Amino acid sequence: MSRAQLSQVRSRARREALLAAAIELFAEGGARSVTHRAVAARAGLPPATTTYYFASIEELVRESLATHLAGWIEVLEALADVEMDPSIDLASTSEFVTGVFATRSPEKAGTELAIYLAAARDPQLKTTAAEALQALEDLAVRTFERLGILAARDLASQAVALIAGSALRRQSAQYDDAEEARLLTSASS
Predict the structure, then answer these.
(1) pLDDT for 48
(2) 140 burial class (0-12, 13-18, 19+ CB within 10 angstroms)?
(3) Closest Cα partner for 146 from 187, 78, 88, 91?
(4) Is the pLDDT at 101 greater than 60, yes or no?
(5) Does domain 59-187 have CATH number 1.10.357?
(6) Please, are residues 42 and 25 in contact by the beta-carbon 8 Å criterion?
(7) How do residues 146-183 score in pLDDT, each as one tens digit?
(8) Which regions of the chain carry the CATH code 1.10.10?
């Protein structure tokens, strides 16, 4: 690898580290916690590094949110290829959702909710936020169609609304994960 190529690789790595640090800080304390100094420190880079890659803190926040949402869209699209047993019953679905909840803590769900809401409020990210929600809905449609469910598109819209509501309710810890999964799956049946 040439010296120029190595420099480009390092530059990309620094930029990605800044974006990752910004999203971590955003998740911990919202947009106010994302400062040039805090992002650089979290990324393990000199304080002036953020201004080299981003013209403003707003640009850094916006790009970190957009990058995070793009990654979420990729994950959702990959999930659409997962094989499912079409004879799955409500109890199995509830167990599956409980397993998902076990790997996605309420804190993680809250972070995703905060990121999504921040992106949806930003006129420059509104389209990306809508694409992320559409990717979730498309995943639900494909899943329902594989299960032989009629009116999959309508049901998918309702399921996405239930999932968002469940993510919001999980923030209060009103129910444990198993009960939340049961409520979510029974509401969609």
Answers:
(1) 92
(2) buried
(3) 88
(4) no
(5) yes
(6) yes
(7) 878 788 888 888 888 887 887 788 777 787 877 877 77
(8) 1-54
Amino acid letter for position 54: F
| The pLDDT of residue 51 | 95
Of 130, 118, 123, 120, the closest CA to residue 31 belongs to 118
Q: What gap in Å lies between CA 120 and CA 83, rounded to an integer?
A: 31
Taking the C-alpha atoms of residue 92 and residue 95, their distance in angstroms, rounded to an integer, is 5
Decide if 21 contacts 39 (C-beta within 8 A): yes
pTM metric for this prediction:
0.73
- Tokens standing for residue 118: 């921040």
In 3D space, the residue among 67, 55, 56, 61 whose CA is nearest the CA of residue 16 turns out to be 67
Helix (H, G, I), strand (E, B) or coil at 56: coil
Q: How far apart, in whole angstroms, are the C-alpha atoms of residue 26 and residue 112?
A: 11
In 3D, which of 23, 53, 10, 50 has the Cα closest to residue 115? Answer: 23
pLDDT band at 9 (very low <50, low <70, confident <90, very high): confident
Model confidence pLDDT, tens digit, residues 13-53: 999 999 999 999 998 888 889 999 999 999 999 999 999 99
Topology of domain 1-54 in CATH is: Arc Repressor Mutant, subunit A (1.10.10)
HSE-up (13 A, CA, CB side) for residue 121:
8
